[in-house]
UniProtKB/TrEMBL annotation:
Topology within the bilayer: Single-pass membrane protein
Transmembrane segments: 26-46
One cellular-component annotation, GO: plasma membrane
Chief location category: membrane
Name under which the protein is recorded: Late embryogenesis abundant protein, LEA-14
Originating organism: Artemisia annua (Sweet wormwood)
Record keywords: Membrane, Transmembrane, Transmembrane helix
Coiled coil: none
Superkingdom per UniProt: Eukaryota
Biological processes, Gene Ontology terms: defense response to other organism
Stored InterPro entries: LEA_2, NDR1-like
Domain Late embryogenesis abundant protein LEA-2 subgroup: 81-183
Subcellular location as annotated: Membrane
Length: 216
């Protein structure tokens, strides 16, 4: 390489370096825009659909309502079967955490039971059977009158709920976490006993197969 050629190469390198330094404020946003646009196209053309949930059955091991001098207490023990279906054809779902519990109207009446983390293949169905337990939970005062109305009607409406976070897997790409809130309505029939209201017989299984609502 002659001295003249070496000088030209050095000038070219300096020119390119100077160009990058001068225009880096435009180059970096452009690169970020292209990367973001690519991910956006992947998301738009492969937008995952939320899983669907079905409450298959509820087995009542205990559901007793007792009225004390100052409070109304509810003791419940439920074994439920709930299933989740992944409707996506090219997308798997990571269930990072999912907590299941029962509510009466606006109040939780059982402790939250954690579902073990799992991965669900596309168009697959997963079934869980958690045990939900609530021991002598004091009923909120504003729910006492509605409970009396439900008692008179002979049916107590409860909701099986699940909340947690999921991620979607498309090929080698995994999305950020999405919140998931599931609500499954159910109805319990009972009769009036001397000590309060309780389920008869002592163990009662309801076949429901009811669709649940799923919100973000």
């Amino acid at each position: 390489m002659t001295a003249a050629t070496a000088t030209k190469v050095a000038d070219c390198v300096i020119h390119k370096d100077g160009f990058l330094r001068k225009h880096w404020k435009y180059v970096v946003p452009l690169v970020l825009f292209v990367i973001g646009f690519v991910f956006l196209m992947i998301w738009l053309f492969a937008t995952p659909t939320k899983p669907t949930f079905t409450l298959q059955d509820v087995t009542l091991l205990a559901f007793n309502i007792s009225s004390l001098s100052t409070t109304t207490q509810l003791m419940s023990k439920l074994q439920i079967t709930i299933s989740s279906r992944n409707p996506n054809q090219r997308c798997g779902i990571y269930y990072d955490n999912l907590d299941v519990y029962a509510t009466y109207r606006t109040q939780e009446i059982t402790h939250q039971t954690a579902i073990p983390p799992s991965f669900q293949e596309h168009e697959d169905v997963t079934t869980w059977s958690p045990l939900l337990i609530g021991l002598d939970a004091p009923l909120a005062p504003f729910l006492v009158n509605p409970l009396g109305e439900d008692q008179a009607a002979g049916t107590v409406p409860i909701n099986i709920r699940a909340s947690g976070r999921v991620r979607y897997k498309i090929g080698g790409w995994v999305s950020f976490r999405h919140f998931l809130n599931v609500n499954c309505p159910a109805f319990i029939k009972f009769q009036n006993n001397a000590g309060g209201y309780s389920v008869t017989p002592a163990v009662l299984k309801y076949q429901l197969d009811g669709e649940c609502t799923v919100d973000d």
